[in-house]
Amino acid sequence: MGRVRQRAALVLLVLVAAALAAFAWALSAGELPVTAADLLAALGGGAGSMEADIIRTLRLPRAVAAFACGGLLALSGALMQVLLRNPLADPYVLGVSGGAAVGALGCLLAGVAGLWIDVGAFAGALVATLLVFGLARGDGSWTRTRLLLTGVIVAAGCGAAVALMLSIAPEGRVKGMLFWLMGDASGVSNPWPALGVLAVGLLTALPFARELNLLARGEVTARALGVRVGRLRALVYGLGALLTGVAVTTLGSVGFVGLIVPHLVRLVIGNDQRLLLPAASLAGGVLLTLADTAARTVVAPVQLPVGVLTALIGVPVFLFLLARHPR
Questions:
Q1: Under a CB-based contact definition with an 8 Å cutoff, are residues 284 and 194 in contact?
Q2: Does 14 score more than 60 pLDDT?
Q3: Which residues, at least 6 apart from 206, have a Cβ–Cβ distance to it below 8 Å?
Q4: pTM of the model
Q5: 223: which residues sit within 8 A by CB, 6+ positions away?
Q6: Residues 208, 239: contact at Cβ < 8 Å?
Q7: Which in 11, 29, 138, 286 has the greatest CB count within 10 A?
């Protein structure tokens, strides 16, 4: 037991160090060179130099938003994968991200803004989640293959709805909506609510880590050991929809983070949810922070949508997982 705890602590320390390194790169990379002294002065509330203003008003909110959304998507993906006992499940593949995008874009087309966009994204994600699991249940029991196929179909339907809304949207707003759909952190000015939701979501899920471990062994086994599967499933449904809705509202529809991060973390540390959930959240935040920084620096001054880079990483990994799990 002591060795397991030491390994868990080591993994979390490595991920925390990786997060700090990712933030350091995100805050210092750009057309304007920033020294370590400028970085420390900006974070410490020093004098308002041009470098400090750029770090505090532009780079820091963007880095925090990318980290928070990466953690949100990875945590949601980890929860869905343990619920379905399938490493191919994630909010993007199951159509949850698409549902959130439909809800958010619907609110934008209706002319509402602010909190209503968050509400619309959460409602869209929840409806998509319930629709996928409801349709996949069929005669009362669902298989993992049927659930994934249903998710792909619902995601395709959400994509069609998004295309319809883009086609009827005012011409001046279409480009911005398209860029947002592919993932855009440049316009985020207040990322702290998303970071708060990530912390609350993780604190909500961790007390159920033992029950999730039992559920990973099968529903029959979990029920025999006293797990209230219905309550746990409802918790995962609602929490997954909330996490995905907040991520989509903040950063746009970013795919494959919830797929590849939990699976890769699971290959390294195993399937103990007490360690997997916080580790996946950290790793997801690190991945999306690095991807967003690369998206704005690789071909600067042109900024790429961060969703493009995550897709370039996620598609090969997804095909590799399919090849490993042919059934």
A1: no
A2: yes
A3: 274, 277, 278
A4: 0.86
A5: 229
A6: no
A7: 286
